[in-house]
Amino acid sequence: MESMADEKIKIEKFDGSDFGFWKMQIKDVLYQKELYQTLLGEKPEKMSDADWVILDMKALGVVRLSLAKSVAFNIVNETATRGLMKAFSNMYEKPSAVNNMFLISQLVNTRMREGASVTIHINQFNLVITRLVSVGIKFDDELQALLLLSSLPDKIKLVDVPEMNYTSKDKPYPRGEICVRGPIVFQGYYKDEGQTREVLDEESWLHTGDIGLWLPGGRLKIIDRKKNIFKLAQGEYIAPEKIENAYAKCKFVAQCFVYGDSLNSSLVSVVCVDPDVLKEWATSEGIKYETLQQLCNDPRARAAVLADMDAVGREAQLRGFEFAKAVTLVAEPFTIENGLLTPTFKVKRPQAKAYFADAISQMYDELSRSDPAQKIVL
Fold it and tell me: Which fold has domain 230-370?
């Protein structure tokens, strides 16, 4: 059995056996790291929502790192520490007869949720199957297949994604974004036409964001995830999430949003800083400040962060046009509450663009003054 090594603690990775012993160990780890409060799921009154999100994500990371890959697959959809531990209790602690009936009911009533990807839906279905198997209730492959098919919408089609080179004319198999439509697909967000149109088109097809291909016999295989891609002025396609993931390794960066458009030839970025790292750097440089945001606005701080981002980018082998040429530093975290994150903690790009519109405009203005070629005038 593998183990997870910590500075002072070493525990065996949980592989599905001896849940009680692993549960005891992981509670001890979270207690020693002062993350135990997340198991209760109750935010302390004096703690901000942003700090609570960060605390819970730290605890969630500790728990996930203590799991074997075969076990971690079953909880990929859990985004909170308390929810993850409850899911494990349902799977590995001996359930009651009432709980068994609940699991069977959950399986029979499993349907593709509004806005969910096909991958997420299948993972949720398999999770219920795994929980039933763990309490001695098994299904043969044919019955599992029938139950899964009955949980899917009535109609499925593939839509071309030319920016990722996926089309319905691809050979030997058609490829594209998986779209579904049917009576169990939700009809839209209540009194929110804009958000509805983000996932439902004019013909009520739900765009899942998953890339699939049709195999012989009408089988559908998921091969990729539709990425947020845009084009710069010179025609280069940019996948911002790839760049943001690279910059996440920068010591100054807690969160990052990379932006570009077809009117500009370079990228800019907004970085929510790691306050401890930035303050420590300021102290070492003898820089005085009154508030964290004041320090974020200091040109010396921006230059230091951008230099570190450049170094990390080179290490990640980013291409020249994938480097952010300017950065704005902010102290306020991106959160669900301020509308910048989805419930799965991904950046809401349209909302982030609007939220940081002034900062983006200012960065491009500064870049165009230093290098007029950065801006394309129509």
Answer: GMP Synthetase; Chain A, domain 3 (3.30.300)
Q: Are 342 and 336 in contact (CB under 8 A)?
A: yes
Distances from the Cα of 60 to the Cαs of 24, 76, 357, 376, in angstroms?
16, 11, 32, 44
Q: Which two tokens stand for residue 137?
A: 């209730």
Beta carbons within 10 angstroms of residue 263's beta carbon? 12
pLDDT tens-digit map of 149-186: 667 656 788 999 887 788 988 888 899 998 888 766 67
User: What does the domain layout of the chain look like in residue ranges?
Assistant: 19-93, 97-150, 155-225, 230-370
Tens digits of per-residue pLDDT, 316-371?
Answer: 999 999 999 999 999 999 998 898 987 778 888 889 999 999 999 999 999 988 76
Strands 10-12 and 3-5, bridge-based pairing: antiparallel
Least Cα distance to 240 among 334, 323, 336, 326 occurs for: 323
- DSSP-assigned beta bridge partners for residue 347: 341
CATH superfamily of 155-225: Luciferase; Domain 3 (2.30.38.10)
pTM for the model stands at 0.49
Burial of 59 (0-12, 13-18, 19+ CB in 10 A): buried
